[in-house]
Amino acid sequence: MDKSWMHSDRRSKAYEFGVEAFLNFAVENLLTTTHIRCPCVKCVNLKLFGVGIIRDHVYFNGIDQSYKNWTFHGEPWEATTNASRNVEEDDGHSRYSFVSEEIDMDDNDFGDFGSDPYEFANVIGDGDQPVYPGCRKYTKLLALVKLYNLKAKHGMSDVCFTELLILQGDLLPEGNTIPTSMYEAKKTLCALGLSYEKMHACPNDCILYRKEYEDSTNCPTCGISRWKEGKDSILKEGVPAKVVWYFPPIPRFKRMFQSHETAKSLTWHAARKSIDGQMSHPADSPSWKLLDDKWPEFGNEPRNLGLALSSDGFNPHSSLSSRYSCWPVILVTYNLPPWLCMKRKFMMLTLLISGPKQPGNDIDVYLEPFIDDLKSLWVGIRGVYDAHNGEYFTLRAALMWTINDFPAYENFFGCVVKGYKACPICGDDTPSHRLKNSHKICYIGHRKWLPINHPYRRQRAAFNGKPEYGIPPEPLTGEEVLQMVENGDRVCCKKKSIFLDLEYWKCDFFTFTFINIL
């Protein structure tokens, strides 16, 4: 294919025809119009976009002229000698397990290069190559990982990191393999990364520009433009008004099972035995047991994952006067032992919702791609390799809990958390009382959950001047909550939670989840 247009003027017809030919070539080979690597000089094939966004980037930023072999867009790879190398393991442990220990940064700074065997083979070669001739302590890959950790830890800019690499190369003996720029360092490390999706969103939290809205330029709900408005009130085409980063969990689960030790730890909950009958792990909870009993085909496979979701807003800026609210969504895997499941390396960032305002009850819009992946995980992901048992299996997973404070609980589930009927369990029968002097509402029915013979039930002066003989109400099931919302009851529930789209959240399992969240 003629690639001379890459060096032509971007205003010329040759460049215009070349861009269209390139996009047609990519679509024909990749069979998609929404997840294609952008070859512009800023993205350098590290980010995935739709055809329309890529066309804008290539015109505005120019195409990377060093990208001569279009391997990421369907052109055959020119195999090298490194491509035939195999990844060896000793005693089930990868020879390059130091990578998972040393990388304390986000894998998601890089694209989905891990699926390319040739490029990953080159990284294996970097793991054997000393950082300079005669060095036994550091390899090229280990040195780059440690240097990039410093960049992430101390917030170095790309320019600063490039200058540091140049200085490091000058300090080391001749023949050293330290790259001379941030771009070269990323190309070396990118094969270790996992994919992420940068999605455009409506500033009013109406939609994500995905699926049928992929090429839309205005929100179909509120009509506001997709693009950011500059100070001169002129729209900056190609610059989104709001961005959401989505980090798909399925490739990460596959990567976890490719580690011998991690794959073994993911079945720890099934191998252990509860001696005293007490709940010492989430696997002992009623929710876990109910899921295993109701769907025995899920519970009989110990490698199936039980997940929890956590989210809250925070201000990423140092200025406390700023009201900017950014919402990360974290995924926790409870198959792991208690001393591992809350470690930083096993807590997965799945969504990063940018500000400046919090999504509120519209957070369901941003959870849509995650719910789609949860539906796929419930059906099953075939061909997942278990390094511990040395076999392929079908991986399934279920979201069992969410971890959040009470205000965020309203955003996730639509339950009323303030006013006279703020108790999600009691609902219309919430025992509330408005204080005359402070004009605040207090809730005085909490003694119902005490044992029937508890002395606090008979005390009067310490509480509301009355004894308590009531019994706690039965929580609503998922089907009852769904029916109540669909019938238009907005007294206790403001919306239908997107979690009710999951099959297992509509049954009695929701009852236990509902209680455990509180």
Mean pLDDT: 80
Helix content: 25-40%
* Rg over alpha carbons: 27 Å
Largest sheet: 6 strands, mixed
Q: Kindly state the number of beta strands.
A: 16
Query: What is the distance, rounded to the nearest whole angstrom, between the alpha carbons of the first and last residues?
Result: 61 Å
Structural class: alpha+beta
Low-confidence sequence ranges: 78-118, 509-518
Strand composition percent:
5-15%
Please state the overall shape, judged from the principal axes of the Cα atoms. globular
Number of helix segments? 17
Task: Give me the side-by-side strand order of the main sheet.
Answer: 5-8-11-10-9-14
Architecture overview:
The protein has 17 helices and 16 strands. The protein has helices spanning 13-30, 51-61, 98-102, 117-128, 140-154, 158-171, 182-189, 249-257, 260-265, 268-271, 286-294, 296-299, 338-341, 363-379, 406-413, 478-486, 509-517; strands at residues 36-37, 48-49, 89-90, 93-94, 197-200, 227-229, 235-240, 243-246, 305-311, 327-333, 347-353, 381-386, 391-395, 397-403, 432-434, 441-443. The longest helix has 18 residues, at 13-30. The protein is an alpha+beta fold and 518 residues long. Mean pLDDT is 80; it is low at 78-118 and 509-518.
